Known about the structure:
alpha/beta; inorganic pyrophosphatase (n-terminal core); Diaminopimelate Epimerase, Chain A, domain 1; 10 helices
Amino acid sequence: MTIFVTGHSNPDTDSVTAAIGLAALLNAQGKDAKACMQSSLENLNPESTVVLERFGLTAPEEMMDVAGKTVALVDFSDIGQAPANITDAEVVTIVDHHKVGDVTTNQPILVRVEPVGCTGTVLNKMYKDAGVAVPKDVAGGMLSAILSDTVNFKSPTCTDDDKAAVAELKVTAGVEDTDSLFMEMLKAKSSVDGVPAKDLLFRDYKDFDMNGKKVGVGQLELATLDQVAAIRDDLLAAAQEVKADGRHTVLLMLTDVVKEGTDLVVVSDDEALIEGAFGAKLDGGTSMWVDGMMSRKKQVVPDLQKAFGC
């Protein structure tokens, strides 16, 4: 029996490297596991591509439909972020660092969900608990994911456990300067030149069920908002197009990593609800600056859930 390990749709670096990391751990424990992702290599986001190349990691296999398969989920547990026909698959493991979602099973399974900044941090603990050494290349991927997800420790999601995992994994991976590694990833992640606006919206995007209403939240992490100044109208149009496909709200977080805040682009059926959720007014009816907003998981989704009465 092969266990297909997969992360969420529109995979980010944590989703991709966590699939690689858990598959490697399961294989080391004598199980047959294969890392997968909901993307082709050609469509993978630039940051993840840089990480795979830097550490010599083989990209997970593309898998968009899991009907009839045995699967392990990493970095998510929401049906809306799962491959097609997830309800027709047998889920045997969930490893995550987000809220517990709506994936259900017919029997008890291994679930490890911890309030840390990255799935890579959870996996690092699982390797130690199992007495299995993290391979050098896998350590590089997990290290990169933690730096990315915690925005080099600036995100409010960052914990002491994340910092401890980075301290351990950097030694295993042979990385002396994690700041340089983060800047290399940020340069790739924030590159927008020549990329269609809709692709940028979906570069790091998730849909959520908010009390029966579909809400999408994308995020672009940038060194400066000037990077997207010339394409703001295109990004707004892309968000409007995506919203028209059956969504109540689409938000795009334009996160300035240096200023540590987010210019939040808003397209919604209820703009007042969004303003109330974040305690800010829309400027020109399309966006609001939210100082200190860095994390979708900790600062956007919880406030949206409260506003939608979830």
